[in-house]
């Protein structure tokens, strides 16, 4: 960075040093001016008084007496006027210096906010580049796939090709537990009357560990969701996005009830921030499924303008739109016979 940005990003200590140097110089100049003022004032007043006194002592008969007295009194008057004007100007300069100091102080107070805004811009630029690369990688991975390729295979190829850059686009931290889960509306595997949201593809931060854990309890490998169940079911129920920055609050968590039979140990620690985006296709804009992105880090997703967390929501939206496009291109229309819940 350069120019104004460099100035804004200087540490507070450097700004303070520059401020002290500037006002120190101003004070030094003011002191020097004060010395000159005193010298000129003394010269005028003392010299004028001396001339006036000499003129008075010379007497009326001396032709130069009146001239000397007049000049002397004039010098005294000039000295008085000079002092008055100088003091007025000095007061004005002092007021201007105080105003400048106030502005500088306000700037220092706002420095952290300015730095945060600039840091956000830099982070957003970096993450947007990752997102563009991820989109390009996903397109290249599927563009040569035959038209009859199953949608599940297409989505898996997309995530395999773009997952690393999607991580960069989101800004996941080392050790963070995150997941992108792709859900599709399917018949209830338990034989229920109504459809459920079934996870068909998933991308974890540590897929090997997840597979090992799921292998211990095969019945818990995937959880399907009915309407009003969990984040995905609530998204389906309202046919709208679900964005939660922090689910640790009981009031917030209670909005996404999970039946006891579908609860897992550690859910509360694993699912702290979530973004669920519907995948809609067809002329009726029907909900084919959704992308459910989760993290154990609070504030990973949030509705906030010009904020990296809002950008993270946009990343999930982009993924949902890419999947919707592939569903529309390869399936044509949703093949399910939707039933009302």
From TrEMBL:
Q: Which domain of life is it from?
A: Bacteria
User: Which parts of the chain span the membrane according to its record?
Assistant: 40-61, 67-88
Swiss-Prot/TrEMBL keywords: Membrane, Transmembrane, Transmembrane helix
* Name of this protein: GAF domain-containing protein
Species source reads Croceicoccus ponticola
């Amino acid at each position: 960075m350069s120019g104004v940005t460099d100035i804004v990003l200087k540490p507070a200590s450097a700004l303070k040093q520059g401020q002290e140097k500037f006002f120190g110089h101003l004070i030094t100049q003011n002191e020097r001016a004060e010395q000159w003022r005193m010298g000129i004032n003394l010269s005028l007043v003392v010299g004028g008084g001396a001339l006036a006194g000499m003129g008075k002592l010379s007497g009326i008969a001396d032709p130069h007496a009146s001239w000397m007295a007049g000049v002397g009194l004039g010098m005294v008057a000039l000295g008085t006027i000079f002092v008055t004007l100088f003091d007025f100007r000095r007061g004005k300069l002092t007021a201007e210096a105080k105003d400048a100091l106030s502005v500088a102080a306000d700037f220092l107070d706002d420095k952290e906010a300015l730095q945060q805004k600039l840091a956000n811009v830099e982070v957003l630029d970096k993450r947007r580049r990752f997102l563009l690369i991820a989109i390009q990688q996903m397109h290249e991975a599927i563009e040569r796939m035959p038209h009859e390729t199953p949608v599940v295979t297409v989505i898996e190829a997309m995530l395999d090709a773009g997952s690393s850059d999607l991580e960069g686009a989101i800004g996941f931290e080392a050790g963070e537990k995150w997941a992108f889960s792709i859900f599709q509306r399917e018949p209830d595997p338990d034989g229920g009357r109504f459809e459920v949201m079934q996870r068909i593809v998933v991308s974890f931060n540590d897929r090997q560990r997840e597979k090992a854990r799921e292998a211990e309890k095969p019945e818990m490998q995937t959880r399907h969701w009915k309407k009003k169940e969990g984040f995905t079911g609530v998204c389906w129920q309202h046919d709208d996005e679900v964005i939660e920055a922090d689910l640790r609050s009981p009031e917030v968590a209670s909005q996404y009830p999970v039946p006891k039979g579908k609860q897992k140990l550690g859910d509360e620690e694993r699912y702290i921030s979530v973004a669920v985006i519907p995948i809609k296709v067809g002329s009726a804009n029907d909900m084919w499924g959704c992308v459910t992105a989760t993290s154990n880090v609070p504030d990973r997703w949030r509705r906030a303008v010009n904020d990296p967390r809002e950008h993270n929501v946009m990343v999930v939206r982009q993924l949902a739109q890419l999947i919707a496009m592939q569903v529309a291109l390869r399936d044509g229309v949703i093949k399910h016979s939707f039933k009302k819940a």
